[in-house]
Amino acid sequence: MSVDHVFIVDDDEAIRDALSWLFQSRGVAVKSYDSAEAFLKEWRPGQSGCLLLDIRMSGMSGLDLFDRLRDVSSSLPVIFLTGHGDVPMAVSALKKGAMDFVEKPFNDNELVDRVIEALALSAQRREREADTADIAGRLAALTARERQVMDLVLAGKLNKVIADDLGITMRTVEVHRAHVFEKMGVKTAVELAQLLSNYRL
Amino acid sequence: MSVDHVFIVDDDEAIRDALSWLFQSRGVAVKSYDSAEAFLKEWRPGQSGCLLLDIRMSGMSGLDLFDRLRDVSSSLPVIFLTGHGDVPMAVSALKKGAMDFVEKPFNDNELVDRVIEALALSAQRREREADTADIAGRLAALTARERQVMDLVLAGKLNKVIADDLGITMRTVEVHRAHVFEKMGVKTAVELAQLLSNYRL
DNA sequence: GCCCATTTGTCGGATATCCACAATAGCCCT
DNA sequence: AGGGCTATTGTGGATATCCGACAAATGGGC
């Protein structure tokens, strides 16, 4: 099983070393990068962990990298580190979904706490995404007709009504309905509703 | 129908006047207060609108008022205004759920846009809360036994199994089930599941 | 005593579930 | 072209479940 890493992206070697030492001494695995580009080269969506991101860097800035990650719909929690941040920058980053925005020099213990929080969040998100992907996969296995029937079942309609709506026999509806239940791994319409309600959004 | 107001809380009369003029000229209703205490005296939970809150005030500070509103679980969106804010303060406010954190001097158009966003959010929250309260009310009307039966129904169990679990007759379960459906205003178990899935959390 | 919650019962119709058997159409692969 | 597979649709019948109306007994609280 892959351990969740803290990804450190900072062009200042002294900072990288200090952060690496800090987290490794607390038993948290670390990977360091000296630029946003270097991180992007290794990063694969789906990896979970926590990104510690310096804002001011030569080349791609931390904010640019953040936007890029949002584009690929990464759910990686991001904590910004900055030496010369201002209020509008912090507000903008947080409103865009950053987990935190910390000024250097930072308090070691607080930072570690935030990172551990973020790692927990990331693991939780990953789990949730795995569930969602699982559901999505099962939904994709449904045929178009089965999907239609399922939607009507979830609308609380009776098989007879569904048959009318689709212009087919009740018996056919029953077959589709049974297939939907089988493919989705449930035994009743209520279970199906519960399953989808938790993961549709 | 009550119009959504912008509530301005600032101890600087010049700011209050400027903001009042700004919003009234854009057709947004305004109520001004010269202190957090004055606002709290008039404020009733459930009112929707948007709070424009100065941080530095004599007496109760804006942050104190914000915390107080959170305690009474107010869903009023809050936009902080500040002349001398720093990054940690902004970060803290946003992480606690403030909608925005704006430094003076502010851009009129941007502020108005944010406020209009906030008013929309507030209206949406209010609607959602009304729905939730409605559901909560119906749930409260259920007897203990009906609630038990409902939970088992939502677990996808058959009446026969529910009867076994509760040590009562199937017929009795049917009666409770019918009462639950009637009180919750639904006709099928699936509708019940849909209803609760959207408002339970 | 009255109201309500809880429990139980019967009867019958409407619905849903399950199974066996069967047919048509479209697809991929050989 | 032929064979296999899936999706789709159909029939008939047996069984289980759900639902509504009518009825009634018990116990608690006002």
Task: Please give a structural write-up.
- Two copies of one chain form a homodimer.
- By secondary structure, chain A is of the alpha/beta class.
- Helix content of chain A is 57%, strand content 12%.
- The radius of gyration of chain A is 24 Å and the shape is elongated.
- The structure holds a DNA duplex (30 and 30 nucleotides).
Q: In what order do the strands lie side by side in the largest sheet of chain A?
A: 2-1-3-4-5
Order of helices and strands of chain A: EHEHEHEHEHHHHH
**Which parts of chain A are unreliable, with pLDDT below 50 for 5 consecutive residues or more?**
none
CATH architecture annotation of the largest domain in chain A:
3-Layer(aba) Sandwich
> Major β-sheet of chain A, in short?
5 strands, parallel
CATH fold assignment of the largest domain in chain A: Rossmann fold
DSSP helix fraction of chain A: 55-70%
The backbone outline of chain A, from C-alpha atoms, is elongated
Count interface residues per chain for the largest interface: A-B, 26 and 27 residues
Overall CATH class of the largest domain in chain A: Alpha Beta
User: What is the C-alpha radius of gyration of chain A, as a whole number of Å?
Assistant: 24 Å
Structural class of chain A: alpha/beta
Straight-line N-to-C gap of chain A: 28 Å
- What is the strand content of chain A? 5-15%
Helix and strand arrangement:
The structure is a homodimer of 201-residue chains.
Chain A: E1 5-9, H1 13-25, E2 30-33, H2 36-42, E3 49-54, H3 62-71, E4 78-82, H4 87-95, E5 100-103, H5 108-140, H6 144-154, H7 159-166, H8 170-184, H9 189-197
Parallel strand pairs in A: 1-2, 1-3, 3-4, 4-5
Helix pairs in contact in A: 6-8, 7-8
The structure holds a DNA duplex (30 and 30 nucleotides).
